[in-house]
Predict the structure.
Amino acid sequence: MNKTIDDIISFTKHRPWKMPNNKWFWYQEWNDAIFLHYQIEETILRNLVPHYLDLDQINGSYWISIVAFTMNKIHIRNTFQIKYFSNFHEVNLRTYVKNKNKPGVFFLSIEAQKILPTIMANLLSGLPYKYSNIKRSSNSYALLGKRSKIDIEFNIANKIDNPQNIDLWLTERYCLYKNSTVYQNPLEIHHKPWELFHIELKNLDINYKKFSGYVNFNSPSLSHYSPGVKVIAWNQQKDS
């Protein structure tokens, strides 16, 4: 594990700002990730994001993304993983924001596969985790929850050797923000750059009730696959 951490920490040339000086707190792996990206109207998005955050945009466009992956080996520094709690499937719906010109993500929805890890994630991270029935295979992802339904079948295509600005803008994010009046500073993360692949979508049936009529989730503007990244994360600091 120490070698893995050293490998992550030593690779920083891609970061938009320096890593925090204090010790990292969490280790986790985000594996077999599918990204589905959609443009959305600014006025719709503004009502969904806390007002202390600025909406981030690229070329005048605002985006939300579905990210489906398998969480592995999550544990606190100097502890060990517990298989049931440390490994589960997750689907989040996120958008792109800034605070004090530091770009990050804000989660509109986070759904996890196991009940107890969902409860623990809520308590420890303060993020809005909800339990949903999630199943996946090497080329499919299915979710059935109270607020959403997702059914994806795909094939992994060729590697993206030279990611465009939009590919990097949508994936290379090194902090996240919460809907909180106490914690408005970002929660910092670090990992190596995502290794991205094109995907061929064979079947797509997605419905988020909250966004009905606003976004056609069955027609993404852009999509990616990645085998994953190894991640370290810091505790979020209260505002000074």
The domain at 2-16+30-233 is CATH 2.40.400 (Acetoacetate decarboxylase-like). The chain has one domain: 2-16+30-233. The longest helix spans residues 115-125.
